[in-house]
């Protein structure tokens, strides 16, 4: 048994998707989509993606950004 399995540590699998840089304009567009859909607790990643209509953006990008957005709004 490998050490990481023994201690229950998950192996990191790098995503095949290119990393997306959330520039201020793109983030603002995201926030506007979330708000127009009823806020961060009601908007789903699929709805946000459809609302934003940005070429090259996919649901994994939205899910990740939504997690960060929700976490940061709790911290502030």
UniProtKB/TrEMBL annotation:
It is found in: Nucleus. Gene3D superfamilies: Homeodomain-like. SUPFAM superfamilies: Homeodomain-like. PROSITE patterns: HTH_MYB. Keywords: Nucleus, Transcription, Transcription regulation. GO terms for cellular component: nucleus. GO terms for molecular function: DNA binding; DNA-binding transcription factor activity. Its main location: nucleus. Residues 14-74 form the HTH myb-type domain. It comes from the Eukaryota. It holds the Pfam family Myb_DNA-binding. PANTHER family: MYB FAMILY TRANSCRIPTION FACTOR MPH1 (PTHR31314:SF113), MYB FAMILY TRANSCRIPTION FACTOR PHL7-LIKE (PTHR31314). This is Putative transcription factor MYB-HB-like family. The lineage of its organism: Eukaryota, Viridiplantae, Streptophyta, Embryophyta, Tracheophyta.
């Amino acid at each position: 048994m490998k050490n990481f399995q023994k201690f229950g540590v998950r192996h990191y699998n790098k995503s095949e998707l290119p990393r997306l840089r959330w520039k201020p304009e793109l983030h603002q567009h995201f926030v506007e989509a979330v708000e127009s859909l009823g806020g961060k607790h009601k908007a789903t990643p699929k709805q946000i993606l459809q609302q934003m209509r940005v070429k090259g953006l996919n649901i994994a990008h939205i899910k990740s950004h939504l997690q960060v957005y929700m976490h940061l709004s709790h911290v502030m």
